[in-house]
Amino acid sequence: QARFVESGGGLVQPGGSLRLSCAASGFAFSNYVMSWYRQVPGKERELVASITSAGGRTNYAESVKGRFTISRDNAKNTLYLQMSSLKAEDTAVYYCYGDLSWGQGTQVTVSS
Prior knowledge:
Mean pLDDT: 97
Distance between the termini: 40 Å
Number of strands: 11
Order of helices and strands: EEEEEEEEEEE
């Protein structure tokens, strides 16, 4: 059974940066496409970025293109999301997703 532990969230000022990590276990991480989603209360969970199993291809929501970078380290079974030039509208709970399973989420708050 896939398990994820996200970390790296927190409070950051507009224009700042954060790096989220998602440590995976319980499945063959290197065989799966992995994704980051985010959710704001009252709204549907939305796809932020995804990455293929070997990391060769990535996909981003239009709202984060050029500011966020998804990456993975298959030797460490870890998924990352580097977030830069953060905006107030990036405030959300961020979740990693793979093998039909979700992490518990990590809160990102962008505020001055």
